[in-house]
C-alpha cells in the first residue's frame, strides 16, 4: 500500500506511522529522517538543505521533493510506503502525484489524524524534558513526575522547551492550517481521504487506522 499520513502537530503521526508501517510491512518515510540521512551522508540534496538551514531559511520544496522521490525509488519501497510529513503543501502534493503517475503507480489512501486544537496545545505544552537527558520526557497531565520539576530517572531539572510553549504551538498550528490542511481537500477530490480520531490510547488509534485501511 502507498499511504500518506496527515495531521496537525501533536496528533501522534510519528508514533502511528511507525506502528502502521510495521503492521503493513512497508517502509516509514518521514521528512525528518530524510533530512538527517541526506545531511549525514553528504548527498548533494543534503548539502543544499544544510546550507538553507544554516542560514535560517526554509528548505525549498524542490529539495524536499527530490529527497522524497529518491527514497521512494529505493527497492524496499517498490511495493508500498507510508509517508509522514510529506507532502507538506499543495506544491509537494502535486509533485508526488506527478511522480507516481510517471511510474505507473498511485496512492491507496490518505489518513487524516484529527485532534481538537485545544487538545494539541495540551499535549505539547504539557511536555517537560530533563536537562540531563532529553530522552527522559514527562507530561504534567498524562505522565507527571513524582516530584514536580524533578526527573524520576536521574533527579535532573525538568523544563519546558521553547518549541513546546503554548504561543509557539499555536503558531505551528496556524502554519499547518494555512499550508498543510489544503492537501486534505486536494486528496478528497481524488476520493482518498479517511479521517481518523486521534484521541484515546495509541493502540486504539492504530486499530481505527488499520480498520480504515482494510475498508471496514
TrEMBL record:
GO terms for biological process: AMP salvage. ATP binds at residues 10-15, 127, 137-138, 200. Keywords: ATP-binding, Cytoplasm, Kinase, Nucleotide biosynthesis, Nucleotide-binding, Transferase. InterPro entries: Adenyl_kin_sub, Adenylat/UMP-CMP_kin, Adenylat_kinase_CS, Adenylate_kinase_lid-dom, P-loop_NTPase. It is an enzyme of class 2 (transferase). It is found in: Cytoplasm. It comes from the Bacteria. GO terms for cellular component: cytoplasm. AMP binds at residues 31, 36, 57-59, 85-88, 92, 161, 172. It catalyses: AMP + ATP = 2 ADP. Residues 30-59 are annotated as: NMP. Transmembrane segments: none annotated. One of its GO terms (molecular function) is AMP kinase activity. Gene3D superfamilies: P-loop containing nucleotide triphosphate hydrolases (3.40.50.300). Its EC number is 2.7.4.3. Pathway: Purine metabolism; AMP biosynthesis via salvage pathway; AMP from ADP: step 1/1. Residues 127-163 form the Adenylate kinase active site lid domain. CDD domains: ADK. Consists of three domains, a large central CORE domain and two small peripheral domains, NMPbind and LID, which undergo movements during catalysis. The LID domain closes over the site of phosphoryl transfer upon ATP binding. Assembling and dissambling the active center during each catalytic cycle provides an effective means to prevent ATP hydrolysis. Belongs to the adenylate kinase family. Monomer. NCBIfam families: adk, PRK00279.1-2, PRK00279.1-3, PRK14527.1. This is Adenylate kinase. It comes from Streptomyces boncukensis.
Amino acid at each position: 500500500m502507498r499511504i500518506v499520513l496527515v495531521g496537525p502537530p501533536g496528533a501522534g503521526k510519528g508514533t502511528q506511522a511507525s506502528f502502521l508501517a510495521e503492521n503493513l510491512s512497508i517502509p516509514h518515510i518521514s521528512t525528518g529522517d530524510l533530512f538527517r540521512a541526506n545531511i549525514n551522508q553528504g548527498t548533494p540534496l543534503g548539502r543544499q538543505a544544510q546550507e538553507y538551514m544554516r542560514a535560517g531559511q526554509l528548505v525549498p520544496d524542490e529539495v524536499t521533493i527530490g529527497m522524497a522521490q529518491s527514497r521512494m525509488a529505493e527497492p524496499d519501497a517498490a511495493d508500498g510506503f507510508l509517508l509522514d510529513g510529506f507532502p507538506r503543501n499543495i506544491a509537494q502534493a502535486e509533485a508526488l502525484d506527478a511522480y507516481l503517475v510517471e511510474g505507473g503507480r498511485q496512492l491507496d489512501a490518505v489518513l487524516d489524524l484529527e485532534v481538537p486544537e485545544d487538545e494539541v496545545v495540551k499535549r505539547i505544552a504539557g511536555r517537560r524534558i530533563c536537562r540531563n537527558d532529553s530522552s527522559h520526557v514527562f507530561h504534567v497531565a498524562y505522565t507527571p513526575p513524582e516530584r514536580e520539576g524533578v526527573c524520576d530517572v536521574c533527579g535532573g531539572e525538568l523544563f519546558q522547551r521553547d518549541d513546546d510553549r503554548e504561543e509557539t504551538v499555536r503558531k505551528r498550528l496556524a502554519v499547518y492550517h494555512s499550508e498543510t490542511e489544503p492537501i486534505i481537500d486536494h486528496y478528497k477530490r481524488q476520493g482518498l481521504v479517511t479521517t481518523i480520531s486521534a484521541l484515546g490510547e495509541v493502540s486504539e488509534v492504530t486499530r481505527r487506522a488499520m480498520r480504515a485501511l482494510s475498508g471496514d
